[in-house]
Amino acid sequence: MESLTPDEVRYVARLANLYLTDQEVETYRHQLTGILAHVQSLQEVDTTGVEPTGHATDSTTVLRSDDSAAPLDREEVLRNAPATSGEFIRVSAVMD
Amino acid sequence: MVNRVSRSSENHYLPAHEIRKKLDSREISSSELTNDTISRISAIDGEINAVLKTTAETALESASAADRRLRGSGPEPGPLTGIPILVKDNMSTAGIETTAASRILSGYVPPFDAEVVSRLNEAGAVIVGKGNLDEFAMGSSNEHSAFGPVKNPWDTNRVPGGSSGGPAAAVAAGECAVALGSDTGGSIRQPAALCGVVGMKPTYGLVSRYGLIAFASSLDQIGPITRDVRDCADVLNVIASHDSKDSTSVKAPFKDFGAKLGESVDGMRLGVPKEYLVDGIEPGVRTAFEEAVEELRSQGATIEETSLPLTNQALAVYYIIAPSEASANLSRYDGMKYGASVADGLTTAAEVSQHTRGEMFGDEVKRRILIGTYALSAGYYDAYYKKAQQVRTLIRQEFIEAFGRFDALITPTSPSVAFEIGAKMDDPLQMYLADICTIPVNIAGLPAISVPCGMSEGLPVGLQVIGPQFGDRTVLQVAHAYEQVTNWHRSHPPL
């Protein structure tokens, strides 16, 4: 498998919402290439017509009755937020 | 009292069911035991770093309540009533900081308890602290904790295994008799093996994941780390429950995990999958494993070699599925809702998020987020994620077929004993490949236990017993039968 380019690593990092230094881009480029080369071995397995498994136990859609229940306490939840304003979480500008 | 008993004594290495007898006979109270546990941790944990924090105040309150319960007031006491227990720090504890050993969660105080924590509290267990781990449970050596590596109590230059390295090392070092770990690809069983204690991952779904900080949701499962198999069954009886707050939770088709303890393995059919005895397996591990096989054979079990040809592919499946699920689960850490935030000099929410994640996640976590994001990205999804899910189906079928011929499978838990700290840090792929014996079990959602089965170079070796889905009682039965005629689980490091 061909080595990932620095731009490919930066693209994936952007999708992952992850700021990387140039040094990290270089390190991960080599490590990810090695790991992705290893998982290529899956291509040797014939999976024609095989259904994918999401969960190993047979699970069905679980529904609960539509009853209201007490939510978490707002004050307690807000205590964990880095910045708040009244009963809201305060964030930086969401538009550039 | 406290100073007298906090130095090492055989009492520090008793299993919980034997401690429980001392509580019943009033030889010791839960309050004394809890005080002793906390002083033992403060006396020796500087050497091994297994415990991120102790919770003395709430623990002593729980202990007093347990003492009242043991003396007859309130609900009937159970096997864990009054027993100190360490909980891995990726399980939410209301009012107690929970970090998953990540800087991104430093200062985070959950407003709710994980379901397992509620179950322990109801049972009267005494939570004495939070155990160290690889950040977000990603790692096999506990070197990836933001709060420093855990050291193996048998040799403090070596790793304890991971990711539940703190819980396993604490039980091995005589800090507590019982701990809870979580296991996504071997994170309970491998550190239990490397530290010489018992650890079990039950069938996927039997223990609620509510309040477990998510790593890879289709693989994560909570389980006990203990000093013997009896304790393991007792803990599972407390923590396993159907929970409507976890939509993948299933109700056990049996009542008592310990129902088959004491039953002989005479006539049982046990398989040894040859792919687990990999080329790189250490000779000392192979020898200890072969001796364990002979021991079970002498008890009347029929043991045959078998083959699970997709074993190697299970690693590749894991290193696609686990990072993919992790990349989605960890997208919630944005530096805004809770935990750490890097905002200085930044103007937009997007920048705050990118820089908080970039600076606060550790190296291994970022590596896995990148692999997972890549595997799920447009153009690659079918080749990686979907392909891995299809091979997962085939691996599951391979196990189902094997369990048509065998009651259980036995393997080494890890191909090596504990390695030196730093030995594999520069080569993540080599670290991943060492998980070959434990990963397939999570891929197929099976129950498996690791019990001590010998020593190699002065370090513990683990025997793994794997069962079919919901064969948890059989797994415990085989492990217990082995334990009854060996003394490996009674040896402990000189701490």
In CATH terms, the superfamily of the domain at 2-239 in chain B is Amidase signature (AS) domain
Order of helices and strands of chain B: HHHEHEHEHEHEEHEHEHHHHEHHEEH
Query: Which radius of gyration of chain A do the C-alpha atoms yield?
Result: 22 Å
Distance between termini of chain A? 38 Å
- Shape descriptor of chain B reads globular
Query: Structural class given helices, strands, pairing of chain B?
Result: alpha/beta
CATH C-level class of the domain at 2-239 in chain B: Alpha Beta
Spatial sequence of strands, sheet with the most strands of chain A: 1-2
- The CATH architecture term of the domain at 2-239 in chain B is Alpha-Beta Complex
What is the third-level CATH name, the topology of the domain at 2-239 in chain B?
Answer: Amidase signature (AS) enzymes
On the 0 to 100 scale, the average pLDDT of chain A is 91
Shape annotation of chain A: flat
How would a textbook summarize the main sheet of chain B?
11 strands, mixed
Describe this structure in words.
The complex is a heterodimer of chains A (96) and B (495). Helices cover 34% and strands 4% of the residues of chain A. Chain A is mainly alpha-helical. Chain A has a domain at 6-43: Histone, subunit A, CATH 1.10.20. The longest helix of chain A has 18 residues, at 22-39. The model of chain A has no long low-confidence stretch (mean pLDDT 91). Chain B has 16 helices and eleven strands. Residues 1-6 of chain B have low confidence and may be disordered. Chain B is an alpha/beta fold. Chain B has an eleven-stranded mixed β-sheet, sandwiched between helices. In chain B, strand 10 and strand 11 form a beta hairpin. The interface between A and B is large, with 52 and 75 residues.
